[in-house]
Amino acid sequence: MSSPTRTKRPVVRLINTEADILTNLALNASGPAAQAGELLLEEIARASTFTADRIPADVVTMHSMVEFEDAASGTSRTVQLVYPAEADISAGRMSILTPVGAGLIGLSESHVIDWPDRNGRQRPLTILKVTQRGRE
Known about the structure:
By secondary structure, the protein is of the alpha/beta class. It contains three helices and eight strands, in the order E-E-H-H-E-E-E-E-H-E-E.
């Protein structure tokens, strides 16, 4: 694997149909999800979009399995990035409308992003591995 690519906001690539769905979700987010919705809208605004058959396999898309490292805690986790109705963190399914979920979407393996957690602290997240699941 190549060395990590570290910038404040690395390149974001989204599947065009997912970008539309995620925009609607983010615009309608309320309560605890509102912060993640705002972060997600910022990422969507700067993303390049592709058709599902043109997006690289190492890019985090909805339903991808993502292994990432949180440098602040020194731990790595593997989660599946899902829509809110499918979320179950105890089963490893993380909602896109969480701060970490919003930060992972559209990144590629080896990318590092400095991203706020629920308390607003910046945490470096490194994408270690992406496995595609359920891409139609």
